[in-house]
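Supplementary Methods, section 5.1.

A reviewer requested that the exact input to the structure prediction be made available. We therefore reproduce it here, unchanged from the version used in the analyses.
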Amino acid sequence: MESPLHHFELHPIVHLSVGGLDISINKAIIAMWVGLALVFALFMMVAGKGRQLVPGKLQSVLEIAMEFIQGMVDEFIGKEEGKKYFSFIASLFIFILTCNLIGLIPGSYTITSQIAVTGAFAVGIFIMTLVIGFAKHGGHFLTILIPPGIPKVMVPIMIPIEIISMLARPLSLSVRLFANMTAGHTVLAVLFGLAMSASIWIGWMPFGFTVVINGLEIAIAFIQAYIFTTLTCVYIGDVINLH
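The structure derived from this sequence is encoded token-by-token as follows.
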């Protein structure tokens, strides 16, 4: 049985190079394009028909999703401030969810199983929160490094701790999504490999487990998209309200 990690390997499908920089197209890039196209097509289908008084199935699902995301934004960022970031949070949630689900299709690729991808998302969000904080509060934003109510003598100790805590945010945000998606797909690969290599009399057992775990992976795809966007809302809310 081949290594269960082989499906995470990326090999160029179309070799491209610009100025010595390798920009070859591989499965991860194609999966990302497909994800973007699906999200765009989904909203265009609804927008093209217009919002109907009696919504169809697709519009109903999207409206439920938007209300769910709106509640998340209102809770962690605030109703007034949240209006500015609703579009970003909604796009982030739906794109990550779409990419997670695409990865469950045999032969496709889960881009959220690449630490480079989740890390780029996390670092970009971290930088965005810093920009938001300084834009809203100016130099006063640095008081986020001093928890309220602590004695002044503890300030020199708490500032380095708070800096480390803030720098750990993009690391934990990226690793959480990457690790969960990688672990689930690895287990599925192992069970499929066992089912294919076992005899017909016992091969149904690991295959049955793959059906169960595949259903669990669908739930995890939703949960991880939710956790990633919830933490993003929390981080934005923290720099706006200086929690």
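The first helix runs from residue 27 to 49. These observations are discussed further in the main text.
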